[in-house]
Amino acid sequence: MKRPRLIYSWQAIPKVLLVAELLFMEKRQNSRSRNVFDSLMSEERIFKNREALSSTFVPSEFPHRNDEINDFANILKPALYGARPSNILIYGQTGTGKTAVTKYISDQIMQKAAKENKKIHTAYINCKQTNTPYGVLTNIGKTYSSEWEDVIPHAGWRIDKVYAALKQKADDNGGIAIVVLDEIDALVSKNGDDILYHLTGLNSDLNNSKISLIGISNDTKFTSWLDPRVKSRLGEESLTFAPYNAIQIEEILAQRATLAFKDNIVEPLVLSYCASKAAQEHGDARKALDLLRISAELAERDNREIVTAKYVIKAQSVMEKDQVRSIITTLPIHHKATLASTIVNQGKRENGQQTTGEVYSTYKQICKLFNLEDLSQRRISNVISELDMQGLIHAKIVSLGRQGRTKFISVAINENQIQELFAEDIELSDIIEELTRSGTYIRSTQMRLI
DNA sequence: AATCCACAGGAAGTGCTGGGCG
DNA sequence: CGCCCAGCACTTCCTGTGGATT
Fold first, then answer.
1. Distance between CA A346 and CA A352 in Å, rounded?
2. What pLDDT, in 10s, does the model give residues A427-442?
3. Is the distance between the Cβ of A439 and the closest atom of strand B smaller than 7 Å?
4. A119 CA from B11 C1′ (Å)
5. N or C: which end of chain A has fewer CB within 10 A?
6. Strand C within 7 A of A336 CB
């Protein structure tokens, strides 16, 4: 395969390096004894404990989740008597506390088991990160001992060998293993339900141990894809986490704010503002916590001692921009080329909407210009769907009668943001620059973009 | 009602990489 | 060293589809 060739603005690089080096030398001479972090670390004005606002923080109390915690604990209780708890499926939209509550319950049962001298193991697997049967099985194995990682290579073994090794390990160690499969839908959509079929059937192969599964999903319809046998085995019990309303989110924020901030740092309005913003987004408490954290960080950067609503507004735009930036900079080259074609084509049609075929033909011209080997239309059709899912473009399936069935595609990010991002992203700006130079594209669009 | 368009998107296959095993 | 396996990105082939047009 041909390597993607890109024309970097290499002339600029030596200049930038030179200026940076000169500035650095000057600084080095002027302040040899001073460290740049000295002034920054002199005093924490706002935060007492930043961690309390992070998405991975597991608090000791969960406002408005007492019922769920009680139900959860009741289902897992048999583990403390040496019996296998039912498998559980947990549903709820993002930011409803599913993962945090599950981690909390896992910690609690481990503590209790240690006190009562019971053998309970817990594993937490995020199926979006570990989304292969091989990875899931090895991660479950780690539940029993940390050396397992050294025993099982991260690739190479046949899957049934890993499965057999896991069975052996489980029986050698005994006890009850509680395995949490977070974002379980990602595992199923990628691999089918084979892996769940084997996992849910694992207990019948075990003599000296038992495994219970906790599946977490934000897609309530995900079980409809499952084999009926897997469905009934996995969903022995189910719990649903309803979205929080604005008042509940505000209470959660207030609880975390007392842990995270020093006293009287946050304007009361700030919490309700963050809460109402997050409540609009389907009661996502995680979003509210992020918004609060970033608002406080911005206030801190401005050397303020109080977080005002002004910073929440600022934080909101920072969050949106950062999200888009991080997505774009990490896109593979063909995704960037596809995005560039939609941007360049925007305006070709009166309503700004273009079809898959139009995007593909522009994409092919881009590949030609950059000496990239072009991918098939089938693949680019998938790339378009991926970009749509990432929120960079809008793609809507439409039927144009005799003109066939296609997607109407438009760019989802605003023009100012595009210009800023183009200036930052060498690959994207190169593509557009080259298109302008070649002069084969819609001039009106280029004039707006460059 | 039949036809036809321009794809959508599922399924199966390919080629490659990175690993283990005998 | 050659073979086997899992995983990934992609291609090829195929069937399905909604609605304007005939």
1. 5
2. 777 777 776 666 554 3
3. no
4. 45
5. N
6. no
